[in-house]
């Protein structure tokens, strides 16, 4: 009896050992697999979030550089930009650019004009130094020694916060001088390395983006001509650390570092003294393009990212190990399905967001601005005309013969024709002009600065000529030809976007009745005024 009890007890413990050991093994394997899957999901989410914020950072930099082009347009539109006009324009524009620290206007001053310039400058300066230089650490301002020419800051906005820099010769620092001269020589924007600010020497470092402004009417074909025609620089001040604070990482405490690539080697911008890390599961890098330079943005996941889960499944009694194994397997399956569903949902949402952004402002077929963006551009152009004068022309263009091509060769050929027409129009028009598609074969062109009748006629004639050339449809299809009828309307004092498009549309039908392939201007009185 005792022997049988012993044998039964042995079999019982053996069963417990097999069930308990199997349950523990399955539980550990399931836990490790779930942890690895969670790490992969976290890594994917981290990389997606980092890429989204990289794109946001690049968009902010591109957005900031556009502000310099707006200010350059102000200087090109008027003969002389006065201080109050500069300040008024800055007050209108800067609220839309919170990442911008300041905008300066540095005027080119020959040595023989220094005295007169300083007489005008002194009443505005916080320290009456005239034209001055500053030490490398931005702590010691001193009057500038005699030089052949100077490029002191003449205007600055916001004024009170940056009044201290008025009169600072931007060419005094070696890296500023090299960047500024390169910008003037090439006629493009260029960015300096980081440097401390005179306004806050111990604060975060800053960079300056230089935009050359040339005197009107002078030739700019060669480097020497551009240097001689230089009137001054528009300077955009950015603090990269402030730029990075605009990025949002939800609840993930992600570390962001910024480096300047100098001769292929990363030099820390923010935080100071940062050392680049090797890319991996917790570290990703992306190149950031700034005018004339390349930065490197590095995202570092927080400590503990990708480690073992903090919640350890409690060990159940040995008699419950098999039930625990089944529960863990079901949890693993649900966790796996949930992760896949979440990943798919995120991908669909990102894709949908990109589609909605494109549909909101741009025509899906041609890539041109749509009606919403067109009306916004017309509104901005009307506001600029009311502030600065000049003349704004809105043209409605309708293709002659498009329906015949569409009916004969099909909608696919018609779409190819519309894409080709859009590219031809962009090739003819100036960068400051806007061309948009209203729908079908109807387009709208917004021409600013349409004061010169021969110039306007030349643009329209080149447009009509380019559109009348044969278009290859490809795939063995014969070349087709269409023409365009254009109606032109000029903005008056009380014009609005709807009225201008309506008047141009009426003029366009006049062009069609006149034989097509030509343009007509709305209103005999306005035509005479042109």
From TrEMBL:
UniProt GO MF annotations: catalytic activity
Entry-linked PROSITE patterns: CHASE (PS50839), GGDEF (PS50887)
Keywords: Membrane, Transmembrane, Transmembrane helix
GO cellular component: membrane
Membrane among keywords: yes
Residue ranges of domain CHASE in the record: 77-253
GO biological process: signal transduction
GGDEF domain: residues covered: 390-524
Record keyword Membrane present: yes
SUPFAM superfamilies (alphabetical): Nucleotide cyclase
Transmembrane segments annotated in the record for this chain: 12-33, 315-332
NCBIfam families in alphabetical order: GGDEF (TIGR00254)
Designated name of the protein: Diguanylate cyclase (GGDEF) domain-containing protein
Organism: Azotobacter beijerinckii
